[in-house]
Amino acid sequence: MTVPPSTPNEWLIYIAGIAERHRFTTITPAGEQLQAALIGFLRTAGTDGTGLLDLKADFITVFPRFFNALAQAGQGGDVHGEDFVRLIEMLFEHITTDADELAARQAAERKH
User: Fold this and answer.
1) Contacts 24+ apart (CB under 8 A), 46-52
2) CA 99 → CA 3, 10, 78, 103, distances in Å?
3) Model confidence over 5-39: pLDDT tens digits?
4) Which of 25, 50, 76, 77 has CB atoms 3.0–4.6 Å from 45's, for a disulfide?
């Protein structure tokens, strides 16, 4: 049985390892680069001992800019509220699905 991490920084490293072992199949090379960068973000944050509040602030600050850029590019710069709502609903669904899958992987790894 694997002992679970005990500190937030250990959790970041642990989750980065799970993400590394269970990579998503991306559609584009850019998607693979994004995935690798985010795994690196978690691993670096965990090893640097960065505070979780600061990491969340960085992510929440940076992520919307890129999310909005993709939305704007897809609509020729003319994105309306309902378009954003649809994208946000899709994002929420993916986040909650991934959280459930991550919890299942963590439970399975603790049993081994």
Assistant:
1) 46/9, 46/10, 46/11, 46/12, 46/13, 46/16, 47/9, 47/13, 49/9, 50/9, 52/8
2) 20, 18, 32, 6
3) 889 999 999 989 989 998 989 999 999 999 999 99
4) 50
Contact 5, 11 (CB under 8 A): yes
The residue with tokens 């980065």 is: 16
Ranges of H-type helices in the chain: 8-21, 29-48, 52-74, 81-111
**For residue 33, which amino acid is it?**
Q
**pTM over the 0.70 mark:** yes
Q: Which amino acid is at 56?
A: K
